[in-house]
Design a protein that fits this description.
About 35% of the residues lie in helices and about 20% in strands. By secondary structure, the protein is an alpha+beta fold. The protein folds into 4 domains: about 10-85, Orthogonal Bundle (Arc Repressor Mutant, subunit A); about 90-160, no CATH class; about 180-285; about 295-375, no CATH class. The longest helix has 20 residues, at about 355-375. The radius of gyration is 28 Å and the shape is extended.
Length: about 375
């Protein structure tokens, strides 16, 4: 028997149904809808079977809150369907100030947004949202914290500046570094002086004295980081961008203890920051495996581009490799985080070099498989 085509997942079919209905501003028949939904175009199924599939999808989408309407034709038969954009999209958000009319935001143009209403928040409602977001952040749950941070950024974009009695929503740092430590590191950075401190490395789970050359201070993902070169262990020249990428390390300021600035030749700089060093490029969108004070390892990964998620990752992350588009090279400082990320592709992304990273990945895969076997 010839192999059958892979069946599209139900979620994809649901998304296609929603997108198709939103294209029309009037009720449409199932035949019109099916033309835009690949999941309903299976020639091996009868018209009745395809219609039953749609009825199940429609009922499940309604259960999820998607307000699909059934509309009667001229004879009274409920055989047309509609999804009104004003009932589906969330309204625009703005702030209701005491004694004033709500500020009406400028609406975006484009499909689905022409007739959206405005939802006004009272000041006490905004304060309640901010308190709730802060409580969720305090749970330190990585998934929930990320969702809340994204939601708060979107809310701030819609409501605009919150003045006139409404406090701006500011979420506290995930951890609070010692203000004196942060000030001393900033002082060393401005004067280009080496600084020695005790540092707890989460990757090594150990404390050690470090001597570094500060290159920058950044606040990222709820943490302050010192970007610096390890002056004692790093002897590589920093004369080009590739070397710089391997050299600079990320030290979380909250783990820095007892910093001491080099007192020798106090009026002169101890080092120079390479001209190719760009603070923004090092902190614009760091991945979990890039952050840390460990030595950088160049890891070569092969992606199976027939897998959609692997293909997207291969096109957006890492650096190109001479072997072709299926291979990407990553700068990794936290191997465990990187291995966990690769494992999420379920075999569609595998490290091929160096050998010790490949073995660590295989060991993690074996341990994970054993864990699931225990609970099967």
């Amino acid at each position: 028997m010839p192999p059958t085509a892979a069946r599209p997942p139900k979620v994809q079919r649901w998304i296609d149904v929603i997108a198709a209905l939103l294209r029309f501003h009037y009720p449409i028949t199932f035949e019109q809808l099916a033309a835009d939904v690949p999941g309903y175009l299976d020639a091996s199924k009868s018209d009745e079977a395809r219609m039953r599939m749609f009825e199940r999808d429609k009922d499940e989408l309604r259960t999820l809150g998607v307000p699909i309407e059934s509309v009667a034709d001229e004879q009274g038969a409920l055989n047309r369907y509609r999804l009104k954009s004003r009932n589906f999209y969330l309204p625009y958000l703005t702030v209701q100030k005491p004694g004033e009319a709500p500020r009406v935001p400028k609406k975006a143009t484009g499909m689905g947004y022409q007739s959206l209403p405005t939802l006004a928040f009272e000041p006490d409602e905004l304060a309640m949202i901010a308190r709730a977001a802060e409580r969720v952040q305090q749970l330190r749950h990585p998934v929930l914290a990320g969702h809340v941070a994204t939601a708060m950024r979107k809310l701030a974009f819609d409501v605009g500046p919150m003045d006139g009695g409404v406090c701006e929503i500011i979420l506290p740092p995930t951890d609070r570094p010692d203000a004196a430590v942060l000030e001393m590191l900033d002082h060393a950075l401005r004067r280009r002086k080496r600084v020695e401190f005790e540092y707890w490395s989460m990757e090594r789970n150990a404390r050690a004295r470090r001597v570094v050359e500060p290159w920058g201070l950044v606040f990222k993902s709820g943490h302050w980081y010192l970007l610096a070169r390890d002056a004692e262990t790093d002897t590589v020249a920093t004369d080009n961008a590739i070397t710089t990428a391997k050299t600079v390390k990320h030290f979380r300021v909250s783990r820095v203890k007892d910093p001491v600035i080099n007192a020798k030749n106090s009026q002169s700089a101890d080092y120079t920051v390479p001209t190719d060093f760009d603070l923004w490029s090092h902190t614009a969108s760091p991945q979990a495996w890039e952050l840390g004070d460990g030595d950088a390892t160049q890891v070569r990964v092969r992606f199976d581009r027939t897998d959609r998620h692997a293909a997207v990752a291969a096109s957006q992350l890492g650096a190109s490799d001479a072997a072709g588009p299926d291979y990407r090279v990553f700068t990794v400082r936290r191997r465990a985080a990187f291995a966990r990320w690769l494992l999420s592709f379920a075999g569609a992304a595998r490290p091929v070099e160096p050998a010790d990273v490949v073995e660590e990945f295989r060991e993690l895969a074996r341990a994970t498989a054993a864990l699931y076997a225990e609970h099967a």
